């Protein structure tokens, strides 16, 4: 039975919604008619709200099961159709409805119609910016729900069609641009557009715009002023702000890009304002000893970039700002000013001298607001770290600091940190003052003190132990007892930052005392058990303290650490067990912490390889497998360090088996080395093929060469087990190493024999060994010292050409070409620079 739509509309207008439902026996028909009403009355806000009220009732669990499959699917598609009407209040309520529908019934509907695909099809179909913006808004909402990996992968395949960013009319596209980033950065970190990462793609489009004929200085400035406003009103994600402002900084560095001086001042003013936004909640968390005072996010990164590009302008504006802030006396602005000052310290010292700058900073050590005191003590730390004071200046500073005793625990912790920073300078005069420093510490060595004070005093003692243990050795036992009482107490949270600092200080005392403080290692074993019992997850801020402490115990206890060694290694292996899906599951702070822990782990492993007892060798394979993930990690530093560590672990393995082979005549070790080498080479080659960063690419290629060279030179019986020729060449190389540094007539025979031998070679494996010979024939010293290889360059070059056509998995083609061409260039230069008394034909 068909119901009169006019009657439905009138009933809705009368706000009798129950009667609307009673008009229909068939709920499917009711839903169809409600969408008809919406399409014809979308400008009437009350009707829209009431229709959606009824629709929300229809998709509740009690009624949902009565609907046909066709109606369920049409609920989604017809709702998306409403967005095309481009009515603001309709869009808002429709998006809420679609999100609610997806949240409750996505598994059933998506089986027949993917909502993400449906949105993207409409997006591509329409060119209207407002409509596309609405689509992006909806996509953002859906992706924040529990979207399956399959849905995301399916949507990612069509996402490249959505990337149509243009800076030609930037003001119209600002929010549109931002929505793209909100979708892409968190959910699709590996997305590539036109074979570029999304950030690279957008940066390149930006560069295209500012270098194009359509570039307009006013439009450019207006675009970024709008970005400034969005950021000031907290409508801009920090990651997006950083990408946008990085583009801005790059543009201002380009001499071909015309940017008005007035705009640079507006930019500086915008950045300065960000440091004055000090949230009361942030201060309260610091006051409650739950957070340190710090400036993070895009403002500090932008400020450092400005300092690099416009250091003089920044310093001039800082001085003007300083006068204004001091005049107002606003404590939040004073805190912000201290952060800005930390970036301009060098210029400030040049104008006012070191002591002059310190005098200004120290005025705020006694400010009535604790947060100001803490910020300026932190600024004093930055002053010392950036511009090391002289011995006399250090003593002047120390005398001033030792007169401070702050009643506020977080501030007092900062004072201890400031003293610790002075200790790190290792000034000779400082040791004369060490008793005063220790006396200062003794006033605070009480387990009943607040956590911040315990953290500060223990951190300071640990710092002194690490740099001048002999100066405090007579107090070491009492310090160790104090610290042991802390970690054995139930009062303290083992995952607190303070607890981690104490663990590290204990490990430093035991390591630096060479066991004299902890006879029999009783305290060491107690501490290790506490660490094992409380080891935090990788994303915890204290995980680094725990890991560093264990590594120091390995160094201190050596073979006695063996029962606990497997625990440490498995922790390090698990730290490197990073899955990209984690990015979508953890917060940015947790992700940053995980990055730091991975970086720390990669730095700690080389320390373990240098220890003979216990040996890291049984775990090399597992560590290398985990490093395979790290060599393509998002962080450039982690990629570089991982590749170097990969090479180091392989070299360590070769060294281990060299020693083993002295008493082992079997080929088992040889086969193990060869299998491991082939695995690393294969994985590195894949990584090289994908690498975009030129610096990282160069490091990967260098380490690939090192891996082959280490095998070739240190373990030749593995690299060329069946090649007698290689063993002969290896003897040549050893002979050259021994005699080439002297003007030895025997080198003539060496060179002549080498060339004759190389000419006779037919095996591709032996031809590959020419790489080793070519490196040894390259003379980095004078012609007079190594004259004898030059007459044979012309005979040697043809053998290198053979290598260009060699088919070998051992040396990938681009590595062969790089090595060969390098030697050819060297040879050409050698021929051109050959002393007159050598007869080298021009045709060479």
UniProtKB/TrEMBL annotation:
InterPro entries, per the entry: ARM-like (IPR011989), ARM-type_fold (IPR016024)
SUPFAM superfamilies: ARM repeat (SSF48371)
Protein name per Swiss-Prot or TrEMBL: Uncharacterized protein
